Amino acid sequence: MAVLSAARRLLGAIGLSIALGMTLLAAPAWAVEPPCAVAKPVFSVRKGLDRLAIELRRQAKIRILAIGSSSTSGVGATAPERAYPAQLQAHLAGLTGRSDVVVENEGIAGEAADATIGRLKAKVAEGRYDLVIWQVGTNDAVRGADEGAFRDYLARGIAVVRRSGADLVLLDQQFFPSVKDPARYERYVAILAETAQAGGVALFSRFALMKAWGERSRETLQGMLAGDGFHMSDRGYGCLAALLADDLLKAVAPGASAPAVAGIR
Q1: Mean pLDDT throughout 8-29?
Q2: For residue 148, is pLDDT > 70?
Q3: What gap in Å lies between CA 73 and CA 67, rounded to an integer?
Q4: pTM for the full model?
Q5: What are the two backbone dihedrals, phi and then psi, of residue 143, each rounded to the nearest 5 degrees?
Q6: What is the pLDDT of residues 156-173, one digit of tens each?
Q7: Are 257 and 250 in contact (CB under 8 A)?
Q8: 75: phi then psi, degrees, rounded to nearest 5
């Protein structure tokens, strides 16, 4: 009987370990990894997100356009649902308790600011969006595009979204360890920040976020990057989406705190 009891306890322990392992494998990366948040603020918004706030109060369907390059399309993610727009939609649904928040992924890998503007014009002309998230600037910075032209493209894109009536959040460049000319790269980061401030639009600084991860530890940043050491991983996209969702909801309800998201607070 003692042998039988011991065997049962062993089988039970094995079963619990298997069940726990399956749970961890099935859970989103952001739910089981160490905290994503950093001490320094990475989201700046001057005038609020009025359109988004109104539509949330009206309980109307929320349409969000996520447009940009490979970081929007999801290069580095293991599946489309791990790209940041899909994870952002899931987070917003969970935080608001609503299933009518839709985030459309309009990312094209390799695209720079000038090419995105044409698509941006077409998208806001054909559809009614409450919020546009424009991820922009990495390819311009890596390729060394004309800085004056880059500044002009940003201003034109801001004007396009403003005329449509949608709110706008600019999502800036990623930080990565192998950047060849850090000083030049960071000039494009600064141009984006300056243009956002001058245009009165919100900016989520992915650059500041990822740099802070790197300052925390080399291992933290590596875990946020895909195997190429450049694009974000499932975990990186998940943290980005979770933090952005939290900041968006705090921006539309100043002083209020969004419900805690697993793996962040």
Answers
A1: 36
A2: yes
A3: 8
A4: 0.84
A5: -85, -10
A6: 999 999 999 999 999 999
A7: yes
A8: -60, 130
CA angle 57, 60, 129 (to 5 degrees): 105
Q: Are 134 and 168 in contact (CB under 8 A)?
A: yes
Distance CA 165, CA 172 (A): 22
CA distances in angstroms from 81 to 89, 232, 253, listed in the order given: 10, 14, 28
Strands 62-68 and 131-135: parallel
Q: HEC string of the chain? A: CHHHHHHHHHHHHHHHHHHHHHHHHHCCHHHHCCCCCCCCCCEECCCCCHHHHHHHHCCCCEEEEEEECHHHHCCCCCCHHHCHHHHHHHHHHHHHCCCCEEEEEEECCCCCHHHHHHHHHHHHHHCCCCEEEEECCHHHHHHCCCHHHHHHHHHHHHHHHHHHCCEEEEECCCCCCCCCCHHHHHHHHHHHHHHHHHHCCEEECHHHHHHHHHHHCHHHHHHHECCCCCCECHHHHHHHHHHHHHHHHHHHCCCCCCCCCCCCC
CB-based contact 100:61 (threshold 8 Å): yes
The DSSP bridge partners found for residue 135 are 171
| Residues 59-109 pLDDT 10s | 889 999 999 999 999 999 999 999 999 999 999 999 999 899 999 999 999
Cβ atoms of 43 and 204 within 8 Å: the answer is: yes
Structure tokens at 49: 């997100």
- Look up tokens 């987070």; give the residue: 91
CB-CB contact of 261 with 246 (8 Å): yes
